[in-house]
Design brief:
With about 240 residues, the chain is mostly helical. It is built from twelve helices and no strands.
Length: about 240
């Protein structure tokens, strides 16, 4: 798995003074607020510095790459936090090596989908950033998009594929030879509509509507992927 934020902090403590590290953390936190509110394109360096209570010169002293470097730092930081939360929830529901009983599969997949959807409430600043990334993808530097994928979506997608493979090995799913695609379909069927209708959690849906979309998505997923016999193929 990619480095955790704890790993990055430990390295930073070795490379810079506590005062400098504290200042960079404060700038990054303030920048997260501005980027989540204004997006990448509209966020001005002056506004980023003002939110952190510093001069633009001080900002560039800490982040010579300016807005692009700051955005990449913030995106990697928040994506790592959310990635670790997603992986913890995935492994809590679908523990590696301990597949659910066949009669519990649908229940557990619903629980996993709910746990993932709830992250929009738990990490609103991150999902505000992701909303802007999708809206401004043609203006966000390619290296920032790559850093985001490497920090969060890619390792989570790999973990989902491994979970789908585990369910296939247990005879619960038939992933039709592509566990990664099965995991992507699970996420799309259970979360995509909720993300779009709630605008990445900005306007939360009523609980009843969220439950309807999740249970319907899991049911559709199982109609496509539930194993139909004791010798169903595995991934």
């Amino acid at each position: 798995m990619a480095d955790s934020n704890e790993d990055r902090m430990a390295q930073a403590r070795r490379e810079m003074s506590p005062r400098k590290l504290e200042k960079q953390i404060a700038i990054a936190r303030a920048s997260c607020t501005v980027f989540g509110r204004d997006g990448y394109t509209r966020a001005a360096v002056d506004a980023l510095a003002a939110e952190a209570g510093i001069s633009t010169r001080t900002l560039y002293n800490h982040f010579p790459g300016g807005k692009a470097q700051l955005f990449r730092t913030v995106v990697a930081w928040t994506s790592t936090d959310v990635r670790d939360a997603q992986l913890a929830r995935l492994h809590a529901v679908l523990a590696p090596g301990r597949p659910p009983r066949p009669e519990d599969l649908e229940r557990d997949l619903v629980a996993l989908a709910r746990a993932f959807v709830d992250l929009m409430t738990d990490y609103p600043n991150h999902f505000a950033l992701v909303r802007h990334i999708h809206a401004e993808a043609d203006h966000v530097p390619p290296e920032v998009l790559q850093a985001w994928q490497d920090a969060g979506p890619r390792p989570v997608g790999q973990a989902m594929a491994e979970a789908m493979t585990g369910l296939a090995d247990a005879g619960l799913l038939d992933v039709h030879g592509d566990a990664g695609l099965a995991g992507a379909h699970f996420s799309a069927l259970t979360a995509h509509a909720i993300v779009q209708l709630s605008h990445y959690g900005v306007r939360p849906l009523p609980k009843e509507e969220t439950d309807r979309l999740i249970t319907g998505g899991v049911a559709a997923f199982l109609r496509a992927y539930r194993a139909t016999g004791p010798t169903a193929p595995t991934g």
